[in-house]
Amino acid sequence: MERTAVFIDAGYLFAAGSTLVANERLPRSELHLDHEVLLAFLTKLVGELTQLPLLRIYWYDGTATGPTSQQLALGYRPGVKLRLGYLNREGVQQGVDSLIVNDLIQLARNRAMADAVLLTGDEDLRVGVLLAQEYGVRVHLLGIEPRTENQSSLLVQDADSLRELTRAEVQSFLSCGHSERTGAHPLREDDASIEAAATSRAGLEAAAERVAQELSREELAEVLKGGQTGSVPTPIDRRLLVASTQATGGAPLTPEQKRRVRAMFFAECRKTFQPQV
């Protein structure tokens, strides 16, 4: 099928990206990734590289104790598939390479994609690239400047095309709060609170959108009828609150979060439901 799938190795993105923007590899706690900007950038880049529609974006990451709120919020976004390996005691990703290789091979074998756009530097992914190419898939390799220092030369040789992300492009979606290295102000407690609130809101929005899209037409009509009084039917409300709790990291929702997500949910239902003529 003439579509493009994007495969993102989050470990590579954060490691090579932080080295580029901060001149050294930083822990994720000191980094901020703007998912909205990144996803929009990748969608546009796919069109430029392949001139084909986007199938979906696959996001590969590791976790030690379960998905983080940021990972869950990303996974709920339309057109994004979250794949999680795990982190060992040293904080190194394990099992992620095999997930990427498996998806590359399965999508190629099933003719679900004609092109693959791969952001990584790991030589272990060569087997997936080579097998996908045997099924006729063109593989476009993305690297982060300077890719000669963070990508396997053998992986580069196997790719059908290469594209290096510049410092300006990476800085558009990845930033850090380390003042000594970047000249920016360090993150203050109120900054952290603002960022946490933004992450929470993104998770609630994603949950509200997902649950609304899963409803049948009859359920949508029932929700909108109840919306006149501000109440969500109990079974649907339960699904909404469970999804919202998962999307915000698993902690119990506050009364304000419940009020907010219900308001978002009604708005999504109104957008989704179109009265029949």
Basic shape = globular
Supply Rg.
Answer: 21 Å
Helix run count: 12
Low-confidence stretches: 178-195
**Biggest β-sheet: count, sense, barrel?**
7 strands, mixed
Structural domain count: 2
CATH superfamily annotation of the largest domain? 5'-nuclease
Would you list the SSEs in sequence order as H and E?
EHEHEHEEHEHEHEHEHHHHH
CATH-derived topology of the largest domain:
Rossmann fold
**Structural class of the secondary structure composition?**
alpha/beta
- pLDDT averaged residue by residue: 83
Count of distinct strands: 9
Strand content: 15-25%
Taking the alpha carbons of the first and last residues, their distance comes to 35 Å
Instruction: State the CATH architecture of the largest domain.
Output: 3-Layer(aba) Sandwich
CATH class of the largest domain: Alpha Beta
Residues in helix, %: 40-55%
Strands of the biggest beta sheet: in what spatial order? Answer: 5-4-3-1-6-7-8
Question: Could you explain how this protein is built, in words?
Answer:
There is one protein chain. With 277 residues, the protein is an alpha/beta fold. The chain has 2 domains: 4-186, Rossmann fold (3-Layer(aba) Sandwich), CATH 3.40.50; 191-272. It is 52% helix and 18% strand. It has 12 helices and 9 strands. It has helices spanning 10-22, 35-50, 69-75, 96-109, 126-134, 153-158, 167-171, 179-182, 189-214, 217-227, 234-247, 255-272; strands at residues 4-9, 31-33, 54-63, 80-87, 93-94, 115-119, 138-144, 161-165, 174-176. The strands form 2 sheets. It has a 7-stranded mixed beta sheet with strand order 5-4-3-1-6-7-8. The longest helix has 26 residues, at 189-214. It is globular, with a radius of gyration of 21 Å. The two termini are 35 Å apart. Residues 178-195 have low confidence and may be disordered.
